[in-house]
Amino acid sequence: MIRITGLSHRILDIPDLALDARHIAVIGPNGSGKTTLLSVCSGIEEPDEGTVRLLGRPPSAVKVGWVGEFPDRTLLFSRAYDEIASTPRFRHRPCRETDERVRAAAERVGIPHLLERTVTALSGGEKALVALAAACVDDPDVLVLDEADSHLDAGTAERLRAVVEASTAAHVLWCTQSMDTAAGADYLLFMEGGAVRHHGTPEEVFARLEETCFYPTLWRVRQ
């Protein structure tokens, strides 16, 4: 479970929220606090007030994998292999285990041919897949994606979705601008002005958003 209590941080104001679903999509207008919420939940930022608990523990005590919207801002190493290997190395995994994890993660994401490439030589989609492999390489308890699918072609976005679905993470927090992707989640948060205005199943939340731009295109076609 993800439990948020008395959270006040920058724009965020979330008095109490309990999330017991695996795939949780976060949607809302720009500036609504989505990225800030994901940053606090992942442990990147410490809240000014209140607490966040992932699986009963603070984020710092949980293995969290993060994939951002702009991989260029988060990729630290010059070679794809070293980027994917960074987490197990930081956790002092043995060299052989680290190599096995890197190659397994690259295989799952479909990028074993990129391991020896320099990051600067990769396309935007390839960088996103390297970032995804790096986030999944050490089997995170919680996987956080902050609009990781925003600038991807359809094929790469579908590959990303398949890898996320197959991950062993207990929770997936996915901020997305694709309402069709959000419609496939188990649970949905709609944020506005730093607050969670609506939350529930996609059917429950989208029923309140039918007359807005935050409604799945495929659902409109289906109607």
Protein model, in words:
By secondary structure, the protein is α/β, with parallel strands linked by helices. The protein has helices at 34-42, 80-90, 95-109, 124-136, 154-166, 179-183, 202-206, 217-222; strands at 2-9, 12-19, 23-27, 49-54, 64-67, 142-146, 171-175, 187-192, 195-200. Helix 2 (80-90) crosses helix 3, helix 2 packs parallel to helix 4 and helix 3 crosses helix 4 (124-136). The chain is globular and about 50 Å long. The mean pLDDT is 94.
Could you say which structural class the secondary elements and strand pairing correspond to? alpha/beta
Tally of strands = 9
Continuous helix count: 8
The span between the termini is 34 Å
Percentage of β-strand residues:
15-25%
Looking at CATH, the homologous superfamily of the domain at 1-63 and 144-153 and 171-223 is P-loop containing nucleotide triphosphate hydrolases
What helical percentage do the residues reach? 25-40%
What's the quaternary structure here?
single chain
Low-confidence stretches: none
Task: Write down the Rg.
Answer: 17 Å
Neighbour order of strands in the largest sheet: 5-6-7-3-8-9
Q: How is this structure best summarized?
A:
The protein is of the alpha/beta class. It is built from 8 helices and 9 strands.
